[in-house]
Prior knowledge:
Layout: E1 3-10, E2 13-18, H1 28-44, H2 46-53, H3 60-74, H4 82-96, H5 100-112, H6 117-126, H7 128-131, H8 133-148
Antiparallel strand pairs: 1-2
Helix pairs in contact: 1-2, 1-3, 4-5, 4-6, 5-8, 6-8
Amino acid sequence: MTLNRRTVMAGAAALPLAEGSGPADGSEAQDRYRRGLDQLTAISGPQGAAVIESLNDIAPDLGRYIVEFAYGDVFARPGLDLKTRELATVAALTAMGNAAPQLKVHMRAALRVGASRQEIVETVMQMIPYAGFPAALNAIGIARDAFATE
């Protein structure tokens, strides 16, 4: 799939959209997409934008779904602050036990939106009764890597 010149700005990151992907200008979907990019940038900075951009050549709709739904709809909801949302995401990804790259991204994002290292470690520890020691041990190893790059 070739990229066209249309871009959507997300803070300092410009995300090219694959030709034929992305919502039409001025639509409700475009509003969701822009709202999602704003949330993604606030939470993950350029790292989040890079993940979405990396999908353009193979699965641009997946990137659009992530931006519109996960960030434009779910993360943008009122009722929880971003720190709480990120700690909940860290808990869920820890419990899943099979999403190491995503867990690392969200641990870094949690730090970015105000969670402390101790809060992240305690969130992982809270998962032991539900996900088991192997999942917690793996998540602590991922935390070590995430903390080293911050």
